[in-house]
Amino acid sequence: MNRIIKYVILDILKNRIVLAYTVLLSLFSWSAFSLEDNSAKGVLTLLNLMLLSVPLISVLFSTIYIYNSSEFLELLVSQPIKRTRIWTSLFFGLSSSLVLAFLIGMGIPIALFAPTKVGLMMIGTGTLITIVFVAIAFLSSILSRDKARGIGISILLWLFFALLFDGLVLFLLFQFSDYPIEKAMIGITFFSPIDLSRILIMLHLDESAMMGYTGAIFKEFFGTFYGLFFSFFMLILWAVIPFIFSRKLFNSKDL
Predict the structure, then answer these.
(1) Distance set, CA 122 to CA 12, 42, 148, 187 (Å)
(2) Which of 75, 76, 182, 209 has the greatest number of C-beta atoms within 10 Å?
(3) Where are the domains of the chain?
(4) CA trace torsion 81, 83, 87, 92 (10° rounding)
């Protein structure tokens, strides 16, 4: 298992796309903090970049990598190695590589310029978001043999979580504005890891007025220790559940 993880990590770290991803994140991060006189403004600028680019790159790159590694997977399956171990090793290798790229490109500048609670939360949520969308990519790729269809599923899922989910929440809030639906909306918010991450960061930046309806009405819940702990727990579940489903499908799939 360790050999497979090591091979995957070394293979990905030599990939030009991952190197370019790391460099671009680093350039944007250093520029954001250099141009802003307030570290909080730099964090807010990077938040928008993180919640759009990090999930997109994670889910797209992981999906394409899995399809391109089909022959490698077939070779491993033909060996006396459990399928569960193969799939888990590939997941850990991909996740570790992309998390490392994120930490080098965005984590180091945040730790240097904004070594605060908000900065640490942003590094933590960025790491979890990366792992979450790698898990989603694993599920998307195992659902279809066709590469184009699998990539399409990944893009649609990213589009839903990044853009369409907010529109759905706003629609529900406007339609049921005459009813006490705050508790129900808290539960709905957990169905989007991107929206949940944005609310967590912006609440601690005291920018709740900029979050719109999806975060301002939840300040009392997400601003508490219990709300913070539960939110990070839900992000972890977002990584665990899609991966478990993908692993079960891989174990029964005829390659």
Answers:
(1) 24, 12, 33, 22
(2) 76
(3) 2-252
(4) -40
